[in-house]
Amino acid sequence: MGADFRLLGAIEMFVDGSFVEVGHHRQRCVLAVMLVEANRPVPVAHVVDRVWGGGQLPAHPASAVGTYVSLLRRVLEPARQGGIARRSAGYVLEVDEENVDLHRFCRLIERAGAIADGGDGALLEQALGLWRGEPFAGADTPWFNTIRTMLAHKRQEARLDLTDIRLRQGRHAAVLAGLRDQVDEQPLDERLAGQFMLAHYRCGRTADALDCYQRLRRRLGEELGADPGPELRALHRRILTADPALAAPPHPVRISPVPRARQLPLMPWPFAGRADELARLTAMHDNASRRGHGSVLAITGTGGIGKTWLALRWAYRHLDRFPDGQLYVNLRGFDPTGKPMAPATAIRGFLDALGGDSLAVPADFDAQAGLFRSMVAGKRMLVMLDNAADSDQVRSLLPGDSRCTVLVTSRGQLSTLAATHGGLVLDLDPLNADEARELLVRHLSAEKLAAEPRAATEILELCAGLPLAIGIVAARAAQHRDFPLAALAAELRDPASRLDLLDGGDLTLNLRAVLSWSCRGLSRDATSAAGLVGSAPGPDLSLPAAAALTGLPTARARIVLRELEDAHLVQQHAPHRFCMHDLVRLFAAQHMKQTDADDRAAEPVRRLVDFYLHTAFAANRRLDPHYPPIRLDAVAAGCQPLCPDDESAALAWFAAEHSNLLVAQRLAADRGWRAEVWQLAWTLGTYHRRSGLLSDNLTVWSAALDAAHRAGDRAAHTLTHRLLGYAYARAGHADDAQKHLRRALSLAEAADDRLGQAHAYHLMAGAWEQQANDRQALRCARHALPLFRALDLPVWEGWTLGQIGWHQARLGDHDEGRAHCAAALALARRHDDPEGEAVVLDSLGYICVRAADYARATHYYEQALTAFNGLGNASEEADTLVNLGAAHYAQGQREQARSRWEAALEHYRTQRRPGDAERVSLLLDRLGQD
Question: What span, in angstroms and rounded, lies between the C-alpha atoms of 156 and 164?
Fold first, then answer.
């Protein structure tokens, strides 16, 4: 087996191409330290300093490092890549440095340095292609930040060297678009500006080249009080005089730029034929480009005919046309067991891929669509919309910029798209006889077909030129290589399995023959599982969820899913996550309906909903053990929910299963399982709040309120009004928030529900805080405090004391505010409430600043910063960084202030918070002028 360690992005490990879970954040950081120092001893003290970075240390740091090393040894051992040895000087990770992308990057740069002046840049392209994002993503200590800065410098130098090579090769037109973004990132880099000017000049845009120079000259004067250097001034003069030596070389060389977002699925294999269709797509794209309009290309045809594979094949052949990246989404337009994907869901996925932060993305769909169009404006990108239902589903996903190309596949005609947006449509036919035979040869081998020519011909005839059918038959033949093709042909020939395969009618009937024949070779458990997986809601299933659905033990479910995967009935698109092609799902679901009575069919669905509900309940308790609890009924027989080990595991589970949880709630509502509807909303509360999923939070609580009302459950009705009200408050809908919170309070008072009253007042205070009304917030918090005290709920007493202290301080009563916050902090620490502790520490920092006690304010803010970072609360972390920078500035600690503000600015830009980013930029500008 071969291991691949990745540090130029998230800290990850792959073995033979498969992702291997390394462990939680600190453990990954320990691995990263050892990999950076591969084959060299690292003292324990250095590991501690680099991983914890002066923050809050564990009680026994050396012991903690030893534990992490022990756990890492278990992860590394199966990879057979050496291991971590203990030496007198420290720990040594013995590994082939070629298997570590960071070392591979540095060595490629070194090798390229000797030939950069005359080379072809291939080594530099390889090196730059290793980058997947920010190195050591998520690791934020001084040591990691220093290494990250060094690597960023190396990367920028490599990019500049590669651009020089491309310009020498006459690739000025190709590099110009990429240089725009680099100039925006490095506006004062004179070498980069010179490359930008030369590329403009060689493209015949002399005025733009001169304008670039003038902009740089003005900015250098304003910000640094300096003029451009002699080399740039000389280039400016040569452009003014049209120096012939600046002309491009006569024989340009094509070098494909490295894209950014790369969401395209794997290159189709095996692939055969379609030469005419590929040429027609290229011609269609060229025609659209010549018209100067955005290219909208559509491939239509019946299901299973190979639309997606053709689209991907064409896209990979022409990646050089889309240097700024490729986006991909499966719109599930013809999903047999659910609705097509909402355009809002697709847009949200695109924003995430383009770097949008969940806490800053607007909740309104139109605003999200506008943000998407803004983010792709000016970029040459491919947007592939796979399996579209109709033109309406596609229309709102179209970029507004003419440089983008949209590639759509659909079983519909998309005539409206062609009429209103100039879409060019390619209607796909089945493979012809030669192409179908070529595809089967690539699956099996020419020798196998030549040994049984008549059987091979019959199989191809029965598959009717449909690539999906050919692939399923070939998988069966490959699985049983000793079986003659004649036996497979005989099975297909059977009238009971053929079902008018050659009629050319509805494709579902055509493929049912192949699928039913394929299922006949499965075990009894696998046959049953195929029907259940085909009927399951949601985009995919994890292994534990599939075990719950089928009622099988996890070990047996794993074997059954592997059997289905081998038969090409399911795909394992991620480790231990399975999905079905929509046609296979349609067949499997129909097959199950024919064999199972309605009462029996309800049992697997009940197990699946219970799996999601009870696992989400346990995960939510990991995230926030003080969240107001609810009681669940006993889990359905045959269902084994999970219990995540810790907070990071719970967050990862919610991230992976979020879409399935939303679907499970809708399914429970459709089935009339009203308690499960509002209980699922409860389980998602903490995850939605920390992730900033405001729109989804409103959706689940709206459904929860309706279910509680229909159920006549008074307590649930009170709870759902309360939490729907707070969901509205978080989303900025003040009137709706107050309406539901007042209703929750009224219901709690009528039932003499003191706990319900306390939480209603607490959330009303939070709602008023969202409106910056400190007096009303303080009034509500003061109502909540005695209620929580009487109920002996010290954690919630602490939260309310923190609320009171914060609003008192905001209103100018600093002494009372400090006293209440100090009491809140003591309660949070005594009862292990890290989130409450972080919030109060930030409030105490604010109070100290108002009292001009900046040293103590710094102390509080640093503690709050560490706590928010540990919780993964990037939004609050950024705000605390700003406050901490201000405290440093007030003490004359200019460099510390700059460091904190720059970090906050990076957070705000990542989170798409332009107002906050502008505020911090002004602080940095003022710092530079002092």
Answer: 12
